[in-house]
Amino acid sequence: MAVFEYTARDTNGNRFTGIYRDVDSVSMLKEELSKMGDTLIKAKRKKNRAKKQAKIKQVDVITFTYKFAGMCSAGLPILRCLETLEEQTENSSFKHILLEVKENVETGLTLHDAFARHKNIFPEFFLGMVAAGESGGKLSQTLEISADYLENQADIRRKIQAAFTYPIVVGVMCIIIVSSLIMFVIPVFSKLYTQLHMVLPGPTQTLVTISYMAKKWGWLILIIIAVMVFLFNKLLKRPFLRTRWDAFKLNMPGFSKLNRMIVVSKFIRTFAMLISAGVSLSDALTVANQVTGNAKVSQIADTLQRSIEAGNPVAGSLKNHDIFPPMIVQLAASGEESGALSDMLNKGVDIIDKDVERTINSLLVKLEPAMTVFMGTLIGFILMAVYLPMFDYMGNIK
Fold it and tell me: Given this structure, which CATH class describes domain 164-398?
């Protein structure tokens, strides 16, 4: 459906302008207005703002959520809050989004539905908390919880990105250096050895063959790699393969522990914060499942949902799945007994987040020197293969 800006004339002959949504064409807009007794004068389709939305950063959403929560807690009307925040926002792309949200609320949509039209900007957890706040009359509290959660997730992402910056830089440098040697240095020596009619040893011959294939078929190799990546991403959209791939990530050698902790942290924290806002256990599991974004965990979440809806305790349901650490199960049991389930689960997730940081640091202690040794060995092999025929040639001259 499209959005049109139009000018029309009412039954009294007065001109007015407006915005009409959910029509496919000007003719449909004309029919809709005629039903109300208005005559369409002119109309134009509003431009798609999808490209602008891509520029919106997560920090913009977090800042907006904190401000929105503060204004709601001060008792300001929702439309007034949205209007003020839209005026104060410096990001022009985000300004357009907030304007559309305000217009949708003015036309009668709920706040949740207005935000849900921009799911690529506002995450599922935010939408779930807004819905809980609207239905329970605790919008400011749920927005505050949502902002804290989004900030926490952003901090975790920043820590992971910062931790893996060095290995990524080393890997990129290794690729650049090796590619430069193969594309530019090896052909020069290969031409020299051909002119000298030298018999090349095995390592050098292998390197020359790789260099020849890279220069002659490099573009084809890149195309094949790009096609393989495209097909891989396409195949991952199939539920069966997506589930198998996500299950593999949870059991990946060397990274299974880290991947499991990150997924469990996101799932349990979302679940705990939602139930603290008054969301039912079943609905909280649904949103937590969507936030996690792991097909294997989705299967687990469905099982948990059926188990809890059948009357089983949360702790007992979690215990049936080995992805959840015993600590989380024990804290869930204590929380259910004391009536503080969300608080106990949040404490457990705080411990897991600290373990995530320690695990990342432990991996880097092993990964950084391993990558340095690998890079040195690879470049050393290339240099040895390049100069080995030269050493044999000099020995024969003597």
Answer: mainly alpha
Fold of 53-149: Receptor-associated Protein (1.20.81)
Cβ neighbour number for residue 388 with a 10 Å cutoff: 16
Tens-place pLDDT, residues 252-279 = 887 788 888 888 988 998 888 888 877 7
Instruction: Quote the pTM value.
Output: 0.67
> Residue 97 corresponds to which tokens in the numbers above?
């989004």
The tokens describing 76, both together, are 């300001």
Burial, 122: exposed, middle or buried (Cβ in 10 Å; 0-12, 13-18, 19+)?
A: buried
DSSP per-residue string spanning 206-275: HHHHHHHHHHHHHHHHHHHHHHHHHHHHHHTTSHHHHHHHHHHHHT-TTTHHHHHHHHHHHHHHHHHHHH
Q: Which two tokens stand for residue 269?
A: 């924290």
Count CB atoms within 10 A of the CB of residue 86.
18
Q: Which residues contact 170 (CB under 8 A, 6 or more apart)?
A: 368, 371, 372, 375
* Percentage of residues of the chain with pLDDT beyond 70: 94
* 48's tokens: 């798609």
